[in-house]
Amino acid sequence: MSTRGDGRRRFGWPWGSRRPSGDEQLDEEEGDDVAELIAECEAYVVGGYAEHLGRHAEQIPVWAWTNLLAHGSREDLVRAAREVHSIWSPSRQWRVARGLIAREVLNELAHGASLFDVQREVLAPIELAIASHPGAWTWTPQRWLDTVRSALHGALGRRS
Prior knowledge:
Blueprint: E1 2-3, E2 9-10, H1 28-45, H2 49-55, H3 64-71, H4 74-82, H5 92-110, H6 115-132, H7 141-159
Helix pairs in contact: 1-2, 3-6, 4-5, 5-7, 6-7
């Protein structure tokens, strides 16, 4: 995988623009690249993309802090809500902001909202909107928190 000039990762087949045919063997390096791509995809789908990037010491894009909220389980949200009291780390402000939103989502669930519905109707669209926002790379945790909170409350207010 390579990185573009703006810091975003560019995904592609490690062999260039063509896919290998079924009878071609992957060399060890190519196999490692494929395994890493699969791990990244899995992390995204289950809401662990920010943590995956952090484990690999890669820059975490702003939208990735929404990933756990949009795709994680109730247990993931409970863990994230506990991060409001986390110890210092380079990403502490982001974890605290995400934990505050996780608490708000959990509060909605306690009042009868469905996690699946909130994720599908509200959080996944917010994640995509932030990912496609050209200036989001410069957002602070507070700007992200305000944006997600506003969208969340606006959408949930319309549902009532």
